[in-house]
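so my prof wants the structure for this chain in the tokens format not the other one, which i didnt know existed until like an hour ago. anyway here's the sequence
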Amino acid sequence: MPGTFSQIYIQVVFAVKGRRRLISPEWESELFKYITGIVTNKGHKLLAINGVEDHVHMLVGLSPSCRLSDLVREIKKSSNAFINENRLSKMKFEWQEGYGAFSYSQSAISNVIAYIQNQKEHHAKLSFKEEYKNFMTKFEIDHEDKYLFD
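here's what i got, hopefully its the right format
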């Protein structure tokens, strides 16, 4: 029986341009539903999504038929337009260029989902910048801090 079978789990993290705190708790659920629709319509499975005022985390079961960069570009472009066209933000909304993508095994999925679901509690103790640097260290990604944020 021919076919393509995969198990690809990626946590994607991206921030509001300049790490401005523009994602309001008043409309973040609308944003998360909108992003869920994009991911689903592209043939992927969104396992978790959450964030705080300056960034979003999501865990995606990625279909091998699409490049991650294409998916993230579409999410950011479309959600940016959704926020601005619906005037959800009081200021012009833009996502920062780039994103973080971190892969996980099946055995780690429940922990990653819990981590994403607890973003608000987590960020009461740790800034996004500290969190992101921790990801870079944990996943042993070579980087220079000056290029992480604009």
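also thought this was worth mentioning. The mean pLDDT is 93.
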